From TrEMBL:
This protein's record includes keyword DNA repair: no
The protein, known as: HIT family hydrolase
InterPro entries: HIT-like (IPR011146), HIT-like_sf (IPR036265)
GO MF annotation terms: hydrolase activity
Top-level taxon of the source organism: Bacteria
Keywords attached to this entry: Hydrolase
Residue ranges of the motif Histidine triad motif: 99-103
Organism: Leptospira fletcheri
Residue ranges of every copy of the HIT domain listed in the record: 11-116
UniProt KW Iron keyword: no
Length: 137
């Protein structure tokens, strides 16, 4: 398990301890779902984050694995009901921030696959035309 010092410096843990985490949409079991920052330029781009500091699947409980599926379903439904993208990519990288967090990236336009995912992660993807960023984010 990560040390308390690592958790106290983790940007995701710090965000979770905030009275109003940025982009907060909802909590599903032991997971938070947050909308990405506007600099990513992709409406519906969500973060799905375990509330507990987890750096590896080996640290997850059986309950967390079960709740993850439900949280993923709810987050996907949130995106689909508001933006209707043709595809949603789900990506786990956790390199810049060790706290496991999943990126749910709706695909709009012609860009596809790994190149689009890279652009989305880096914030260099083209903003989709005619699709507004959600209010409050």
């Amino acid at each position: 398990m990560p040390s308390e010092a690592l958790r106290s410096e983790c940007p995701i843990c710090i965000e979770h301890r905030s009275s109003s985490p940025s982009g907060f949409l909802f909590q599903s079991g032991d997971f938070l779902v947050r909308h990405c920052e506007p600099s990513k330029k992709i409406p519906g781009y969500l973060y799905l984050e375990p509330i507990a500091h987890r750096e590896s699947y080996s640290e997850w409980s059986e309950k967390e694995f079960s709740e993850f599926g439900i949280a993923l379903q709810k987050a996907s439904e949130w995106i689909l009901s508001r933006f209707s993208p043709p595809k949603i990519y789900t990506v786990l990288v956790s390199e810049k921030v060790a706290h496991m967090h999943f990126h749910l990236i709706p695909r709009y336009g012609e860009a596809k696959g790994p190149e689009y995912i890279r652009q989305a992660l880096e914030g260099t993807a083209q903003a989709p035309e005619g699709i507004s960023f959600p209010k409050g984010n």
